[in-house]
Every structure is written in C-alpha cells, then in structure tokens.
Amino acid sequence: MSVKQEEVSSSSPFDVADTFTDVTFDVEGKQLHFSKHLLQMSSPVFDRMFTSDFKEKESSVIPLPGKTYQAMDTFLRQLHPAHCWKPITDGDLEALLQLADEYQVKHVQERCQKFMEAQISTSYITCVLLYLRLCDKHKFEQTRTKAIESLASQGRVKTWESCDEFKQLTLSTKYDLVRARCLRLDR
C-alpha cells in the first residue's frame, strides 16, 4: 500500500466540517467535527453539557485532554447513523467502553457487550480473559458467565496465569473461574 493510500484509509469521516457539524473536538492536536444534536440524542451527559450552564454550551471547539484521537473517532462512529458500521475490534473495546460509560451511551455499551458475546466461543484465551475483565468492570453479568464457561472448558489454570489479562482480574473473578474449571474436571 502506498503512503497516499494509507493516509486516505486512516482518515476519519469527522476530519472535515460539513453543514451538519456544529461542534469540534480537539483531541491530541487533531480536530473531529460532529453534530451536537446527535451527541445530545445519544448521551445524557452531552445533553446536559450543551443545554446547561457549562462552558461547552457556547463553545464550538471542545478540548478533550486525556482522550485519544483513535478512541474518539471510533466512539463517534458508533453514534453517527451514516458511519456507525465500523466494526468494533478487540483493540477498540476497552477505550470504547470507557467512553460509553463516561458519556452514558447505552447503545454503545450494548454493542460492545454483543461483540464480546459473539467472539467468546472463537477467541483465543487472552481475548476471552480481556472480555472477562471488561465484563467485571462494566457489570455485564450474562457475558461474564459465558466467558467463564468458555474459559473453564478450554485451557488450564497455568495457561491463564501466564496471561497479563488474568493477572488483572479481581480475586473474586479468579475464584469463580478456577471453581468453574474444577467443577468441569469433576464431571
């Protein structure tokens, strides 16, 4: 792939303002243009931000320190009806869930949960451990149970312990996982 093709394929549909954009996010020195109305319809946090006495109400450019351009682009694609078909990936999942929680966007949380559920049965152990950690963090109990069942049926505790994702699980989740594995072996 030539450099020119890489530049085109990595650009965001929100890099350029159009007649429907009325807010610009400044993220990592780059700008993402979007519609306040779409943000307000998707998020009670953005709705309050743009209708209450917050400085963002009158601002046309909103700096987002601590956020990454890639994560915000992926998040905005989930909100925009014309650009929401960018598939969620394992690499986007954690940042996307964090933004969905921060801005209280339920449909993005649900898409992430559905993505994990669809991937559990075909993913490598490290990915399922990631899903399990994220399910714990975001209280996706049904998906958490599926992840535990999947892990209990495949792999050994020593294999899990060698993964960084396993080390980040809570003690309670580790207990549930090891217990499920033991019960499976007891059959």
TrEMBL record:
BTB domain residues: 21-80
One Pfam family hit: BTB
InterPro entries named in the record: BTB/POZ_dom, SKP1/BTB/POZ_sf
Protein's recorded name: BTB domain-containing protein
